[in-house]
Amino acid sequence: MIEVDSSGPVWTITLNRPEKANALTAEMLCDLADAAEAAQEAQAVILTGVGKVFSAGADLEAARAGLATSPDWERLSAAIAALPGLTIAALNGTLAGGATGMALACDLRIAVPQASFFYPVMKLGYLPQPSDPLRMCNLIGPSRTKLVFLAGQKLTAATALDYGLIDEVVLKGSVYDRATALCADISGTDPAIARQIKSMCQPES
Fold first, then answer.
1. Looking at the domain assignment, is residue 205 inside a domain?
2. The overall pTM is greater than 0.85
3. Dist CA 163 CA 11 (whole Å)
4. What is the per-residue DSSP string for 60-104?
5. Higher pLDDT among residues 61 and 40, named by residue
6. Would you call 123 exposed, middle or buried from its count of C-beta atoms within 10 A (0-12, 13-18, 19+)?
7. Does a structural domain hold residue 76?
8. For 96, phi and psi rounded to 5 degrees?
9. CA atoms of 68 and 47, how far apart (whole Å)
10. Does residue 114 fall inside a structural domain?
11. Mean pLDDT over all residues of the chain?
């Protein structure tokens, strides 16, 4: 249910469980983290999904069985954030709950116009993963982050773009094709130069 294409300089990691809105099982979450950790030599990594939803977050049955508090959520987002290549979340649809962490950890987030964004863990009785509110706050500020986590607001793609949660709404063509186009320059560049430029773009801690 997690497909990895590592055949070229640009890796693609695809969530393929559209009949369940790409909700993540424990096995899928572990496979995602494994793939992210293995992508150290990739010039770029694209995360995307099959169907009309990028991911509904944790599978509800798996969440009740303990997946909601699994350390693999933080393992996944930390692995993506640490990748030296360009990382792009090509959001083919709605992004919800714990799955938000992998997109927040990416360098760029692009989405289809129909996408929406929400993180309803408080209502479900869970805490978010520790890094997720911090990364979101760095993108959209503390007040808007509280709109999502505490006020339970669902953001449209247009609002997410206005807030800075995503970087582009893809109006023509597929979101995956747009992500591939964004990787064109880096895939033909000296990896050492590209990685140094990425490190220069990181905010000072």
1. no
2. yes
3. 28
4. HHHHHTTGGG-THHHHHHHHHHH-SSEEEEEE-SEEEGGGHHHHH
5. 40
6. exposed
7. yes
8. -140, 155
9. 21
10. yes
11. 94
Amino acid residing at 77? S
pLDDT class for 66, splitting at 50, 70, 90? confident
Say whether pLDDT at 43 is over 70.
yes
| Helices and strands counted in the chain (H then E) | 11, 10
Domain residues for the domain of 143 are 2-200
**Beta carbons of 27 and 58 less than 8 angstroms apart:** no
Name residue 11's amino acid.
W
- Distance of alpha carbon 26 from alpha carbon 51, whole angstroms: 20
What separation in angstroms does the CA of 146 have from each of 132, 134, 149, 184? 12, 11, 5, 36
- Residues constituting the chain: 205
The CATH number of the domain where 68 resides is what? 3.90.226.10
Total domains present in the chain: 1
In one-letter notation, the amino acid at residue 30 is C
Asked if residue 20 is part of any domain, the answer here is yes
